[in-house]
Amino acid sequence: MRISSLVSWSLAAVSAWAADSNEDYKSIALRTHSLSQPYLDSDMQSRWYDFGGDTIIRTDHYIRLTADRPSQTGWIFSRVPLTATNWQIEVEFKIHGKNTLFGDGFAMWLTKERGQQGPVFGSVDKFEGLGIFFDTYRNNRPGVAFPFVMAMVGDGKTTYDKGSDGKANELAGCSARGIRGAGVPTMFRLTYFQDKSLKLELQYKTEGEWVHCFETTEPPTLPPAAYLGFSAETGELSDNHDIISVAVSSLYEPQSGDKATPGNRASKSSHRLGSTKAKKSGSWLWFFTKIFLVILAVGGGYFGYTAWRANKRSHRF
């Protein structure tokens, strides 16, 4: 082995270890809240979700909350609540239709209520929890490009400001022109760290490229047990609102000798993201220890290689 090859290998190892040291958390997939084809079991029912309204499930393609027809409302809600402290929800969806004018949009919910039809993107008003709205039709909100994506935290008493497209209720949001009828799979990824942040990313411009929509510095307080759901509605204008897949994960900070329990509402504060100073110091100490060991390996390899070359030369005479 040449010294240059050994050095290259060592540098690659250091880079890999450095990347690994930046992983502050791990994830556990939650089957109870995830959806993928064929969506239904052999009895044509979903074990983990209920659905209603005008929702149609085509097992080889999509869950269609509304078809491209006027005055439709559809929903799908989890049967068990999401109780993870830190979580990530990644959803592939599709908004499309044949009309030049279209509406109204769809929503993702994490609420105390479940499976109730209503006037807010197909679900109930005065909800308690979190709503993420993908609004494709402008009612009365000048200066904002549509489609518009926004988050609202409901207290169970406040009415959604439908006339102004939620302007009075907005926690955070962004314009997402091109999200309807995009040429790549459209997705959103919502990540929540209790007491730390709520972040939304979108994929609709280029496959594999996530566009930052928003990130709150003061995350909302959500119900300790909230049902995950999706709903959509059409009025005089319409669109197909499809859910293709849902992947939900519980996020946790790995601890030595500690086993994570998916769906646990983190009775242990050590499972919250945001490392303590002691842990950060330990991580850096371990990182530099690894570098030191690599240097020792390189040095040992070099001296061993030198000795081998000297010994080989001596055998020639």
From TrEMBL:
Gene3D superfamilies: 2.60.120.200. Pfam families: Lectin_leg-like. It is a single-pass type I membrane protein. It is found in: Membrane. Residues 1-18 form the signal peptide. The chain crosses the membrane at residues 284-308. Residues 254-275 are annotated as: Disordered. Residues 27-251 form the L-type lectin-like domain. PANTHER family: RE50040P, VESICULAR MANNOSE-BINDING LECTIN. This is L-type lectin-like domain-containing protein.
